[in-house]
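Design request, tokens follow.
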């Protein structure tokens, strides 16, 4: 099931990190290999799938039932045993004990047996699809988190740069204030601008630490392990047009699972119906023997050894199912209703998936427009900031107004990064929904 090489990956990575004393460097593929190997739920599904494969290939339900019996006993009239001293004295004699044995063979021929192989094949396919679904869900969660961490690192970099520039401006403002070239209000404005960056930087680092904790939990790694991610940008994802996407989503794993579950429910209905209404034929063959414990080969006596062979044919006709309100009839009605509900759920899920695809494509179109709009806004604010810096140098703009201009530029830059991240998340979610790599 699992590739044996994957089992060595976590050990190799941790040994490399330990020996070098450096952070564990992981690409998205490396992280997934570790997650796939360590995930207990996925491993459990693989074990269940292996058991289903073995059961699907077995045909034990077609084989007859075979048994062997052996016993030893002593029989005597209770009254004689209690009243006759001679009987009590001879109770332990060998000739009073009997050894018995039997061989039995039976074979139940029921019409529902023919559906068992199909039922087991569906069970095996259901587990295979559940593994595929679980793998897809884990990959999606890991991919989103991986690129959230990368975006978080970028966010921390922007905040640190902003704080460094603000601190430099405070030093410059303090020097000008000491020389009498800057008002106290402008100095306070510079200090406030730098102080405003402190909680923003702290929040960015705290959020990033939380993401790394979740990341290590996904991979079931030690919390103290230092991790560094290598993939700096998301791979290009080619999405189909809306028309083809709507066709692709109709073959999603979720719908395949629902279809198989409906097929399994129909088979269970037919098996229950056969067991409830169709007679069952059971041929049997048996051989019984009794041997007196005092039996000697040279003194054969038919009274000492006896055997019997029997051949039977039993026909069992269930009658309870034909009565109104019987347990069997109520069970059949419940199965029919369950099938109808499953059919309704399948249609509802298909509609929901189609609507979700339409919404995602609308959101992606809107996000692309917002990215372009925010780029224009950022470009405009950059030019405005450059113009205001020149006016400040010429003494025609206050330091507080210049700080407001810088703050507007920083907010616009952050808005653009947020919108890019939103577009990335929408793209990943769409690829996940369409089952794209």
């Amino acid at each position: 099931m699992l590739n044996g090489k994957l089992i060595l990956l976590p050990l190799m990575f941790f040994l490399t990190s330990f020996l070098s004393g450096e952070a564990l460097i992981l690409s998205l593929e490396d992280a997934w290999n570790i997650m796939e190997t360590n995930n207990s739920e996925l491993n459990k599904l693989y074990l269940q799938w292996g058991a289903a494969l073995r059961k699907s290939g077995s045909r034990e339900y077609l084989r007859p039932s075979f048994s062997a019996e052996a016993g030893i006993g002593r029989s005597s009239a209770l009254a004689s045993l209690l009243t006759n001293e001679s009987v009590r004295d001879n109770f332990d004699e060998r000739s009073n004990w009997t050894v018995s044995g039997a061989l039995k063979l039976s074979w139940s021929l029921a019409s529902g047996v023919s559906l068992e192989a199909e039922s087991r094949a569906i069970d095996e396919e259901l587990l295979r699809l559940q593994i595929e679904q679980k793998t897809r869900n884990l990959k999606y969660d890991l991919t989103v988190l991986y690129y959230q961490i990368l975006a978080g690192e970028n966010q921390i970099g922007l905040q640190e740069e902003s704080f460094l520039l603000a601190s430099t401006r405070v030093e410059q403002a303090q020097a000008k204030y000491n020389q009498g070239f800057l008002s106290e209000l402008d100095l306070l404005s510079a200090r406030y601008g730098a102080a405003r960056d402190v909680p923003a930087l702290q929040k960015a680092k705290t959020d990033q630490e939380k993401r790394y904790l979740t990341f290590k939990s996904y991979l079931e790694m030690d919390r103290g392990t230092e991790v560094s991610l290598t993939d700096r940008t998301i791979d290009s994802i080619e999405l189909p047009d809306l028309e083809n996407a709507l066709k692709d989503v109709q073959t999603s794993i979720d719908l395949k699972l629902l279809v198989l579950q409906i097929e399994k429910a129909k088979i269970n209905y037919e098996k229950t119906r056969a067991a409830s209404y169709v007679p069952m034929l059971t041929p049997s063959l048996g051989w019984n023997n009794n041997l007196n414990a005092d039996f000697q080969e040279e003194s054969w006596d038919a009274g000492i050894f006896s055997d019997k062979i029997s051949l039977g044919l039993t026909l069992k006709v269930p009658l309870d199912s034909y009565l109104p309100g019987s347990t069997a009839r109520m069970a059949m009605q419940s199965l029919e209703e369950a099938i109808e509900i499953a059919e309704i759920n399948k249609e509802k899920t298909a509609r929901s998936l189609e609507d979700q695809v339409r919404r995602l494509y609308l959101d992606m179109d809107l996000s692309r427009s917002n990215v372009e709009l925010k780029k224009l806004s950022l470009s405009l604010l950059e030019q405005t900031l450059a113009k205001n810096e020149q006016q400040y140098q010429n003494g025609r703009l206050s330091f507080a107004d210049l700080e407001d201009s810088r703050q507007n530029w920083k907010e616009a830059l952050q808005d653009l990064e947020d919108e890019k991240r939103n577009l990335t998340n929408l793209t990943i979610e769409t690829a996940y929904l369409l089952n794209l790599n």
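Comment from the thread starter after seeing the answer: thanks! The first strand starts at residue 24 and ends at 26.
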